[in-house]
Amino acid sequence: MILVSLLNAMKLLIGLGNPGSEYARTRHNAGFMAVDLLAERFAKGEIARSKFHSLIIEASVGGTKCLLMKPVTYMNRSGQAAAEACRFYKLNPAEDVLVMVDDVALPCGMIRLKATGGAGGHNGLTDMARKLGTENYARLRIGVDEKPPMMRLDDYVLGRFTEEQLDRLGPALTLAADAAEVFAAEGIEASMNKFNTRNSSSGWGTPEADENEEERSA
Question: What CATH number is given for 2-216 in this structure?
Fold first, then answer.
């Protein structure tokens, strides 16, 4: 009983992306970048280790024991790492998992949190739902701007941020790390209430855009 209790006292904060230097700082790796910032804040000096088909670091985030995770299986198989960790720690995806991911339906500089929802064509989220067996897990979407006309979506998301986008991305990643901290301490509803409101008040996005964003995500 004590062992089960200790195992359950864990949150999984997982960033989606592709491993390898050729993908570093590409738009599709925005989730990796958010996890990297969390590691800088809460696990300074800790060395990532390989487990669950991912790189992981354990850290106290928001006073809660968390597993920071970057899958090394490439985007299309992101769910394998999350599913293995959930089984090992006996985590409930609806309460204990936050997935941080890029989204072309949001302007660069904006983040958006949801407690559940569809994959919207995002291969990482599609595999996450498949491997977890549910779409009921929290996700934090990091805007990377809509692709230019006549450009393939995969070429866009696998391309690197422009300098102008990087200027807006930095504050967004800070917000993402702040939101993940609130999620770890208080749950997804508290994080949504605080950070979705902050995004709306900043002038980014509209209710109409928010309704359609998952249909347009990569």
Answer: 3.40.50.1470
pLDDT by residue for the chain (218 residues), tens only, comes to 333 334 457 999 999 999 999 999 999 999 999 999 999 999 988 899 999 999 999 999 999 999 999 999 999 999 999 999 999 999 999 999 999 999 999 999 999 999 999 887 898 999 999 999 999 999 999 999 999 998 999 999 999 999 999 999 999 999 999 999 999 999 999 999 999 976 644 444 433 344 444 434 44
Nearest-5° Cα angle at 124, 118 to 129: 45
Residues with a catalytic annotation lie at 28
Distances from the Cα of 8 to the Cα of 65, 71, 185, angstroms: 10, 21, 14
Query: 141 forms bridges with which residues in the sheet?
Result: 101, 112
Domain boundaries, the chain: 2-216
On whether the CB atoms of residues 94 and 135 are closer than 8 A, the answer is no
Distance CA 181, CA 111 (A): 14
pTM: 0.88
Close Cβ partners of 14 (under 8 Å, ≥ 6 residues apart): 31, 35, 54, 69, 70, 71, 78, 81, 82, 97, 98, 99, 100
